[in-house]
Design a protein that fits this description.
Function: Subunit R is required for both nuclease and ATPase activities, but not for modification.
Catalytic activity: Endonucleolytic cleavage of DNA to give random double-stranded fragments with terminal 5'-phosphates, ATP is simultaneously hydrolyzed
Number of helices: 44
Pfam families: HSDR_N, SWI2_SNF2, T1R_D3-like
Largest sheet: 7 strands, mixed
Radius of gyration: 35 Å
Structural class: alpha/beta
InterPro entries: Helicase_ATP-bd, HsdR_RecA-like_helicase_dom_2, P-loop_NTPase, Restrct_endonuc_type1_HsdR_N, Restrct_endonuc_typeI_HsdR, SWI2_SNF2, Type-I_R_enzyme_R_subunit
Distance between the termini: 63 Å
Helix content: 40-55%
Number of strands: 31
Shape: globular
EC number: 3.1.21.3
Strand content: 5-15%
């Protein structure tokens, strides 16, 4: 029996299989000769007879009757389709053609009654694929624009005689290793669009494909090579595709397809098609976008022209994401409201344009075309960016809107927004979410219609409180769709406001698709020398005259790493390292970079230090000093360095802050200065500059904020193989944790945000805000009997210290208890109000009108200021301004930067947490992974086990043993990895020695049992009989029940929770272990509760 190897040449492996599949998808094969006959010449690209044939079937309606097109109307349509303005450029010609296809062409007809009628005729029937002609041809030779030579696309797809699809096919195996044949096909497509080539063919083409057996990409007119996309179908599975591919061709089609081919090729194809074939990459793309019904949907809904980006077609995640959104929007709740949800597409994958595609699709959906759209964001620059995309992308209608129309679409004030909501008819309105604070208080700001769709950009950022609930109150039945690149994770899901995740596109998938650049992480550690003895002496000296409370307050504020990180010597050391690294590794590529700093003062110091190096130009972009930014404990806006920089750079230059920022970012996007942008919080979200190639991080980041920040350098650029993250702050554990968390979220995302596991943990929020009147009255009761409630001095004196002599002769402050009770009451009222302002039912409750809510907020501000005054009067706090400059100088003097130590390796960010076989890794990767697990273990034990002290103690000791064991192995990276990996699995399993099996499925009870063991001691526990141990396990379960009840009954009031726990537990625990141990156990339970009950 003889065996024949597969023919891998282009015609046999790509071109004929593509034609075979397209015929099975519903296209009609037209030989090159027949196609040329219909064209008339190689200069002509239309199949005029086909176009005429289709137009003769078109009908229009007049006074209840259908009429065919007159010869004059048909001629007019043919003229308009033939006369495309190529003189204005290929893109302009293509856009003209697209509009004529999308909108139809209006013709003039003279009717039998003598009247003139102007119907609009659809060249393409968008709703019925069978009403169109689908022709596919090969080797379509086209004469160049100058007539000097010809180009021959491998396959051209004609719809109603118009060449809407051009395909280049390639063999899979390249001429040499590392060469992509599909890249060559893309290059061919781009070459053929040049002015001197065959642009008259591409003036019609809407989809361009480059395919081979193993790779397939698609683009559109003038799409740069890096943006050609792959297709992953989320609805047609492999079995369905296999069935389509292996369906036998009609004999006539098969014979036509093979006619004129060499005998050997004919025989090979017949043998190939006679046996089952597996789907290939080119099959997936062809079936995904060129099935007739799919192609009509794609061209109608998923093509847009943008003034900046050019012509765009949707990527597969946008296509299927919008399908999912439309399906959700068509649903109505029992109360008549429209359903919403979350679109999670990783940062950098085109969410802004996804919004535009959605808005276009709404226009064309019969069930949704009457809907109005409100686009909500939280920043002016994002509003401007989105508005620009909508204006030029066709979201306002089928034609591109004017700039004036776009400006008119923005709500200028809260009152303007209120009028648009209640009385307006604008199809699209843009607004900042902050405007709802004012708008929602106006009577006209209400619209119960379900035909309103609210699109929220980055919904995790500004939609957890009052403004969001006011928006919900104004638009109770609207659909709310949140677009985010970083949805809230499991621990944050109580803040979720939008419903389930309807579609997900993760960082991992985006990198695999080459939609974004992969990220490479590198750690660089600044080595410091600190004179700790000098620092301690200074603190003791400077705080000698302070009270104990003030001294503690001061040390707590300035102690720890925060002050050290801002030391000028440290910043100068890092600045030199940044400048040298950028100058050597990034600048030669023509790329730019960002420096993320912890404060405005750090940003300005970095600017000065970078300027001193002379190796890299830089610019600072921060918010004005009168606004707070970051998490500084001390208001740094008043610092002389910050104020001086702002005055010199902005005020003295007589430039508006927004103009300075716009001009700086425009320059950053070009080839000149600045080369580095120094930022604090600004531009760590929503800043998309492809030239941005490296992010230098000297700032603590975690969770979705971290993922947002690192994505600043993942945009595609010709010179960028990967975005680089250089870390001076040690964020690798947080980065690893965040990437793993989003991987986990991706696996369960189709179920949306699972809020079921919170059921029973908290009572309805209405039981919390109903307490507000009583809490408010209690707060005022501290000031009963004042002669005047308009005199702030009387409030002050009610809380100020009054020292009296006690029975023992010692003086004490008789108002200390009063102040502490006032502080507690204020905290309770503030927490309750905060919860209420995040509740929709609070704003809908008529017992709490806006006037009362405003009074609550005003009183909270007033009493908070009284608390500050009382704490100063009682010397319970300290004026940081008197000490911060001295402390800063001390740190600058006593912290010496020695060198920046480079880490041993780098990490590919999207591969963090990815499952692979470690035996296949090179040694450096194995060592990196072992170190990463060790770091992750430390973080888990120190932070995640904080609410389980026993587990933290046991696993901490086990980790120390594991590290000692690893060090004893000397240099065996794979053994190190296996040791730490096994330890991590044990930690995840949470199997602890000394914990009864019956508690294994009850993590909270485990923690309480651990508290019992810690209090009683290991020796005492070892001496107990099995039945005594069993009673203690039962006690742990009982404690769990008591705590859950206390949390549920007191909602978010921590003081009441703790009080109820103590009252209920002390007698129960006392019966088993005695009073002293009972007190210790109960206090440990309270401490665990403070650290937070995490849903299991």
């Amino acid at each position: 029996m003889s065996h024949t190897a597969p023919d891998t040449r282009e015609q046999a492996s790509a071109q004929l299989p593509a034609l075979h599949l397209l015929c099975n998808l519903g296209w009609h094969y037209l030989s090159a000769a027949d196609c040329l006959a219909l064209r008339g010449s190689t200069r002509e690209v239309l199949l005029l007879p086909r176009l005429l044939e289709v137009l003769q079937t078109r009908r229009y309606r007049y006074k209840g009757q259908d009429y065919p097109l007159s010869p004059g109307a048909i001629d007019q349509i043919v003229r308009e389709l033939s006369a495309l303005p190529l003189g204005e450029g290929l893109l302009a010609a293509n856009e003209t053609l697209y509009k004529r296809l999308a909108l139809g062409i209006t013709v003039t007809e003279f009717m039998p009654d003598g009247k003139k009628h102007q119907p609009t005729i659809a060249v393409i029937d968008w709703t019925d694929p069978a009403a169109n002609r689908w022709d596919i041809t090969e080797e379509c030779q086209v004469l160049s624009a100058q007539g000097t030579h010809a180009r021959t696309p491998d396959i051209v797809g004609y719809v109603n005689g118009l060449p809407l699809v051009v395909i280049e096919t390639k063999r899979a195996d390249a001429g040499h290793a590392g060469k992509s044949m599909v890249a060559e096909a893309i290059s061919q497509q781009l070459r053929n669009q040049r002015t001197e080539e065959i642009p008259h063919l591409f003036a019609y083409a809407q989809l361009l494909l480059a395919i081979s057996l193993t790779e397939a990409r698609y683009g559109t007119t003038l799409t740069p090579a890096k943006f050609w996309a792959r297709w992953r179908d989320e609805q047609v599975d492999e079995a369905q595709l296999s069935q389509i591919k292996n369906a036998p061709l009609p004999a006539a089609t098969r014979d036509a397809l093979l006619a004129g081919k060499p005998a050997a090729l004919r025989a090979y194809c017949q043998a190939l098609w006679a046996q089952p074939m597996l789907p290939t990459e080119q099959d997936r793309l062809l079936a995904g976008v060129l099935t007739p019904a799919r192609l009509l949907e794609f061209l109608r809904n998923f093509v847009l022209f943008d003034r900046k980006a050019g012509k765009l077609v949707a990527r597969y995640q946008q296509f299927f994401g919008i399908r999912a959104l439309l399906a959700q929007l068509r649903k109505l709740r029992p109360d008549g409201g429209r359903e919403g949800g979350v679109l999670w597409h990783t940062t950098g994958s085109g969410k802004s344009f996804t919004m535009v595609f959605l808005t276009k699709a709404l226009l064309l959906d019969p069930a949704l075309q009457e809907c109005r759209v409100l686009v909500v964001t939280d920043r002016t620059d994002l509003e401007t960016q989105l508005a620009r995309n909508f204006i030029s992308g066709g979201a306002f209608g089928s034609a591109v809107a004017t700039r004036k129309e776009g400006e008119r679409s923005k709500a200028t004030t809260g009152r303007d927004l209120a009028q648009r909501i209640g009385q307006g008819n604008e199809r699209i309105t843009f607004s900042l979410v902050q405007k709802f604070t004012t708008a929602a208080k106006l009577p006209e700001c209400r619209n119960p219609s379900p035909d309103l769709i609210v699109l929220v950009d980055e919904g995790h950022r500004s939609h957890g409180g009052e403004t969001h609930e006011r928006m919900r109150k104004a638009l109770p039945n609207a659909a709310y769709l949140a677009f985010t690149g970083t949805p809230l994770l499991k621990d944050e899901k109580t803040a979720n406001k939008f419903g389930p995740i309807l579609h997900a596109y993760s960082m991992q998938r985006a990198v695999e698709d080459q939609t974004v650049a992969p990220l490479l992480y590198e750690e660089r550690v600044p080595e410091l020398d600190i004179n700790e003895a000098a620092v301690t002496r200074w603190f003791d000296k400077i705080t000698a005259g302070l009270s104990e409370a003030q001294s503690s307050d001061l040390k707590k504020t300035f102690a720890g790493k925060r002050a050290i990180y801002g030391a000028s010597n440290r910043l100068e050391l890092i600045a030199w390292d940044i400048a040298a690294h950028y100058h050597e590794h990034v600048k030669p590529l023509g790329l730019k970079g960002q420096v993320a700093t912890d404060s405005k003062l750090d940003a300005i110091r970095y600017k000065r230090a970078l300027d001193d190096t002379g190796l890299a130009s830089s610019a600072v972009v921060i918010s004005p000093p009168d606004t707070r930014e970051g998490n500084s404990a001390v208001d740094e806006d008043s610092l002389p360095e910050v104020q001086k920089w702002w005055k010199q750079t902005i005020v003295d230059a007589r430039i508006a802050p927004e103009d300075y920022e716009r001009e700086t970012l425009h320059a950053f996007g070009g080839e000149g200065d600045p080369e580095l942008l120094i930022v604090v919080d600004k531009l760590l979200t929503g800043f998309d500059e492809p030239r941005n190639g490296v992010l230098y991080i000297d700032k603590p980041l975690k969770g979705h904020n971290l993922i947002q920040a690192v994505a600043r350098v993942n945009r595609l650029h010709d010179a960028k193989r990967h975005g680089l993250l250089v870390d001076y702050r040690g964020i690798l554990p947080e980065l690893d944790t965040a990437v793993r968390a989003y991987r986990d979220l991706e696996t369960r995302t189709q179920a949306g945000f699972d809020v079921a596991d919170l059921d029973g943990l908290y009572h309805a929020v209405s039981t919390e805000y109903k307490r507000l009147p009583a809490l408010h009255a209690r707060l005022w009761s501290f000031f009963d009997g004042l002669d005047s409630r308009h005199d702030p001095e009387q409030f002050r004196q009610r809380l100020s210290p009054r020292f009296v002599r006690g029975a023992d002769g010692e003086e004490y402050d008789e108002r200390q208890a009063l102040r502490e009770d006032f502080y507690a009451a204020l905290t309770e009222f503030g927490l309750c109000l905060q919860t209420a302002l995040s509740s929709r039912s609070f704003f809908e409750d008529r017992d709490f009108p806006d006037s009362l809510i405003d009074r609550y907020k005003q009183d909270l501000r007033f009493f908070s200021s009284q608390r500050q005054t009382a704490r100063r009067d009682a010397m319970e706090t300290v004026d940081y301004g008197l000490y911060e400059e001295q402390i800063r100088k001390l740190v600058d003097k006593q912290v010496i930067g020695r060198e920046v130590r480079e880490s041993q390796g780098t990490y590919i960010v999207h591969e963090l947490g990815k499952h692979e076989e470690p035996e296949t890794w090179p040694e450096d990767k194995t060592r990196n992974e072992a170190d990463l697990i060790r770091t992750r273990l430390r973080k888990t034990i120190e932070q995640d086990l904080a609410s389980d002290p026993y587990a933290q103690k046991i696993f901490g000791e086990l980790l120390r043993q594991a590290i000692a064991e690893a060090e004893a192995m000397f240099d065996h990276p794979l053994k190190h990895y296996a040791l730490f990996k096994t330890f991590e699995e044990r930690l995840q399993d949470a199997h602890l020695p000394g914990i009864p099996d019956r508690l294994h499925a009850h993590p909270h009870a485990r923690a309480y049992y651990g508290a019992i063991r810690l209090e009683l001691g290991e020796e005492a526990m070892a001496a107990r009989q099995p039945d005594e141990v069993d009673r203690l396990a039962a006690l742990a379960l009982e404690i769990d029940g008591v705590v859950r009840t206390a949390v549920a009954e007191n909602s978010l009031n921590q003081q009441n929770i703790e009080s109820q726990i103590r009252q209920q537990l002390l007698p129960r625990v006392f019966d088993l272990v005695g009073l002293e141990h009972a007190k210790g156990i109960v206090e440990q339970v309270v401490q665990i509760t403070r650290l937070g009950l995490r849903p299991s």
